[in-house]
Amino acid sequence: MIWNTRINQMTKTKYPIIMGAFAGLGKAKFAAAFSNGGGLGIITALNYKVDGFKKVLQGMESMTDKPFGINISVRPPGVKTPYGQLTEDDYLKYVEIGLNEGLNIFTTSAYQATFIGKRVHEAGCYWYHKCALPKHALSAEKAGADAITLVGLEGAGAKHPFQNTTLVNLTITKKLLKVPIIAAGGIGDARGFLGALAMGAEAVCFGTAIMLTKECPASTELKEKWLNTNIFDEHFHKKIYDFEARDIKTPSTAVAHRKNIIPIKDFIEEIMNNAELILKSWGFTSNELNIIS
Ligand SMILES: Cc1cc2nc3c(=O)[nH]c(=O)nc-3n(C[C@H](O)[C@H](O)[C@H](O)COP(=O)(O)O)c2cc1C
Description:
- By secondary structure, the protein is an alpha/beta fold.
- The protein has a single domain (2-282), classed as Aldolase class I (TIM Barrel, Alpha-Beta Barrel).
- It has helices spanning 6-11, 28-36, 50-60, 88-100, 114-122, 134-142, 166-174, 190-198, 208-211, 220-227, 234-241, 264-281; strands spanning 2-4, 17-19, 41-44, 68-73, 105-109, 126-131, 147-151, 181-184, 203-206, 288-290.
- The longest helix is centred in the C-terminal third of the chain and has 18 residues, at 264-281.
- It binds flavin mononucleotide (FMN).
């Protein structure tokens, strides 16, 4: 089945799916496996020192001939990266390396990143920014972002005290934005994937769900622990939904959809094949899903 959205037109991937950014885990081999599966693999730039970053991107050539991008998580003022406090020029060094290596998609998150978007646009490439609130999505669109990744409260990673659920975020923001939305937060199976498209997204970003794959560089012990998460447990619930008790290292509710640790290629095939079966069961007969709106 052909999946056609504004996002996979920009990313030139087979499927409208994008890998999340992962501090510590978003390494090249993991990203290459996601790209080989038909999505857009993302290398989390700050997992590497800038000095060795060019070599990392060049090493991707031996692992995939498919498109991939990078993420730069810009820290708010006063918040350090693993390499201390970075200036705008420091972050831009990663961007320059990516541009020199011919990348086309640059994703940013965590704080304002217009300075990155400007440089990416000067080079004729695409800038995607991740937000948690509709009002931040609107600001990022105004600042020129070509797509917005919108993370709902169900998602893992950084939280905002006034964050809404993925459903509320998507359906409200779809009415406000012109640029395409990439849905994130709690999505771990084909129904979640299709549901996000129906709620206004033109691609899905997978975080937690792909941490339960063979290629994710976390230990097998940790993956087993995540698989056994009881998402209905009160402590788990607090860590995800209660801003004061949050724990950004806790995998999201998407774990509930995963039953074992499988290769990324199988994970992606499962989502896409099941999504197609669901569409057919609803009476959809075309071989192409076109949701360019
Ligand atoms: C271990 C871990 C580390 C993460 N690190 C980052 C990061 O450095 N930058 C970022 O933008 N998002 C980060 N995220 C968030 C993911 O990129 C993604 O937005 C989120 O996981 C989506 O929700 P889901 O886990 O429910 O799929 C991280 C998530 C996890 C689980």
